[in-house]
Structure formats: structure tokens, C-alpha cells
Amino acid sequence: KLSPFERSKYLYALARMIQKNSRFLSVLETIDNGKPIRETRDIDIPLVARHFYYHAGWSAKDTSSKNKPIGVVGQIIPWNFPLLMAAWKIAPALAAGCTVILKPAEQTPLSALRLTEIINDSGLLPKGVLNVITGLGEEAGAPIASHPDIDKVAFTGSTEVGKLITKASAGNLKKVTLELGGKSPAIVFPDADIDAAIQGVASGIFFNHGQTCCAGSRLFAHEKVYDKVTEGVAEIAKSIKVGPGMNDKDGSQMGPLVSNEQYEKVVGYMESGKQDGAECLVGGTHDNSNGGHFVHPTVFSKTNADMKFVQEEIFGPVLTTQKITDDDLNSIASEANNTEFGLAASVWSKDISTAHKMAAKIKAGTVWINCHNVFDSALPFGGYKQSGNGREMGFECMDNYLETKAVTVNL
Ligand code: NAI
Ligand code: MG
């Protein structure tokens, strides 16, 4: 019932409170998830605040009286960017005037809980507008997806659970948006700035330990530059310092994977790749002896589309690489598109015409040209094919939380 201006004011205030609490939230996030403190401090939490600032703007600026909040919104999120995923969900829903029931991942509930404490202490939001329920997916998530009084569910996580949510939502036909897995290609043409491509491909896969839905997990490099690119990425992989996330003084650049389940999954994919005949150029090593789940940055060569670990989402710091032997853009695109996913891609070329032609042919919601993993609250993000339905961020995201109403007056 609050006016758009009132909503805008409290979203700005929330953004400022997140900034004030950013040190505490960064430490909490690193302890909970394992990722390096330099990333939670310099990337995750600043992006969380920016996301609230961005959506604060939308609530007062969307003056269309046709748009009405969709109602009660259930939001189920994963553990890879715990507070950022909460922000992607909560900020647009509040901006639209919805009430929220958020379920964080069971592995990483702390930062969302702390955020609600901060909000409660501030007295900013009317009571009951933002609710957080913790628990396992089957126990706390599934009831949200099937609940008859919830009008919309927004989910980020595995494609497998995305399908379960779609089925469970059919009872009251609640609106569903899904942000699911990926197997994103990074395509390097021979005319690319090769040093920049090497850096970009490496951070495209190794950022956040590869636990990123849009990780550039399949490298396609033209045969003229394949050796140089794969060797360059392997060099970077070797140089990445793996260690506990809080060890900033010792310079940990990559922490442990989030859980033993994820560790087993990633190690299993590395083994399956080796069994299928792929060759490990660097990494392939892992260590969970001290209770951490460390997997070293890994690059495989001699991989092809028939291999299980080239088709399925690994969600770890593991890159598979293939040579492009054909200059025909359609055939390059058909290899890059040879996946059930369609979340993102990067294209590396100095020829803007080649890059744009490629971008048009890639079936993915995001195509980066000469960069990878670049996010902005204003840019819509989401998937083709089995990478999901709908878009997050940008005004597209506000649409997820609004119904359009036509009221006709007979004067
Ligand atoms: P998941 O999809 O099981 O969990 C994500 C969220 O969904 C969590 O909050 C979980 O509690 C909830 N959930 C689980 N089962 C549910 C159900 N039946 N009904 C409602 N909610 C449910 O993902 P998980 O098991 O943590 O990771 C498995 C794989 O999924 C990863 O290895 C990765 O490949 C992929 N994944 C993709 C993500 C993305 O950003 N697209 C994020 C996390 C995982
Ligand atoms: Mg699961």
C-alpha cells in the first residue's frame, strides 16, 4: 500500500545500510561460503548495495498506473553468491510493492539472516513484508513452490530442481521465473587480443571457483591460437593461490568449494573426463584432508562434445577446451550451441563485425564481447533453453513482479 516514492526511499535506505554493514557481511559471507574475503569485500557486497540502489530508482520512476504488484512472492536461492542472489530477488520485488518469502540455500543462510536482522532493527519495512525461512530444499523450498497462497515463485539453482518447481507450481498456476544452470562457451578467434583473451577466459572459468552459472566452462579456440591460449590459461591456473577464504594476508585467491557434496561432484567430473580420454594439462588435483574442499584450477585438452563432462554442468574450476578448425561462423556457432543450456557466452575478436555476427548466432541470454562475467544491475540476465525462464536485473526483472491491469472507465 506504500506509495512508489515511499518504497523508493526505503530501498535507498536499505542500500546505505548494506554499505554501512559491508565489513560484517563480507566476513560472514566468506565464513559461510568459503570464497576469498577479497571477493566478498570487493565484489559480492558492493554489488548487493548497487542492486538496491538501482531498483530504488525503478519504484519511483515506473509511474504507469497499469502496473500492480503481483502479490506474495516466494524466492528460492542458491549458495554460490548468497547475499547477491538474495539482492537480485528481494530488491525488485520490494520495488514493485510485493511481499517476500525468501528461502536461502541450506549451505549459506547466514548473510540473508543478518540482512533481515539489519532491516528489522532499522524499523524501515512494514512488518511481514520481508520474511526469511531457512531449511532444506524438500522441506522449506518445495512447500513454497506448491503453496496455493503464493502468487509467484522465483528460483535460482539447478535445472533439475527448476523442473520440480515448475511442476509444483502448476497447482495454482503461480507465475514462475527460473535462473538455472549453464555450460557457457568462450570462443577465441585468431584475430583476438590474445593476452586479453587468456586473462578473460581464465577469470571466466575460475572466478568464484567456477561455481558460477555463467562460467565460461567450454573454451573454443581457433587452431591458429589454440596452443597459445590453452597454455596461457594453464599458466594462470598454476599461479592461482588456493587456500582458506579468510587468509587474505597469505593471499588466498581461491577458497574451498562450498560443500562436500559439491567437492565430490566436481572431482567425479574430473575423473569421468579422464576416463573418456581427455588430457589434464594442469590441476586435476584436490584435497579435502583438512575439512576443506579444495580443488585446484584445472584445464583439460582433447575434449569433445560426446564427453559427459563437456555436456553437463560441473560448477567447479574445470575448463574443457576444443580446437576450432573451420572458419565458417555457422559451424562454430553450432558447436558452441551444442548444449542443452543457453545462459551466456563470450566472443573474443578485434573484428567487431565477426563478434556481432557470432553474438547473433549464439543461443544464450548474455553474450560478452572481449570480456566475460561482466554484470550490471541495468543489464537483463537469464537463459535460453534449459537455462531458465525470464530475466533478472534491468527493467525486465521488474516485469516479473508486476501484473498489467487495464481499467476502462465509461465517462
Ligand atoms: P539446488 O538446485 O538443489 O539448490 C538451490 C536451492 O533450491 C536451495 O535453496 C535448495 O534448498 C532449493 N531446493 C532444493 N530442492 C528443492 C525442491 N525440491 N523444491 C524447492 N527448492 C529446492 O542446487 P544444489 O543441490 O545446491 O547444487 C547442485 C547443482 O546445481 C550444482 O552443482 C550446480 O550445477 C547447480 N547450481 C546452479 C546454480 C545457478 O546459479 N544456476 C546455483 C547452485 C547450483
Ligand atoms: Mg540439490
What do you see in this structure?
The protein is α/β, with parallel strands linked by helices. The protein is 42% helix and 17% strand. It has 14 helices and 17 strands. The protein has a 7-stranded mixed β-sheet with strand order 9-12-13-8-7-14-15, sandwiched between helices. The longest helix is centred in the N-terminal third of the chain and has 25 residues, at 37-61. It is globular, with a radius of gyration of 22 Å. The mean pLDDT is 96. The chain binds 1,4-dihydronicotinamide adenine dinucleotide and magnesium ion (MG).
State the strand order across the main sheet.
9-12-13-8-7-14-15
Taking the alpha carbons of the first and last residues, their distance comes to 27 Å
Outline the biggest β-sheet: 7 strands, mixed
- By DSSP (H or I, 4+ residues per run), the number of helices equals 14
Number of strands: 17
Strand-pairing-aware structural class: alpha/beta
Average pLDDT, to the nearest integer?
96
- Associated small molecules: 1,4-dihydronicotinamide adenine dinucleotide, magnesium ion
Shape: globular
Low-confidence stretches: none
User: Could you tell me the radius of gyration in angstroms?
Assistant: 22 Å
Q: Portion of residues in helices?
A: 40-55%
Strand content of the residues, in percent?
Answer: 15-25%
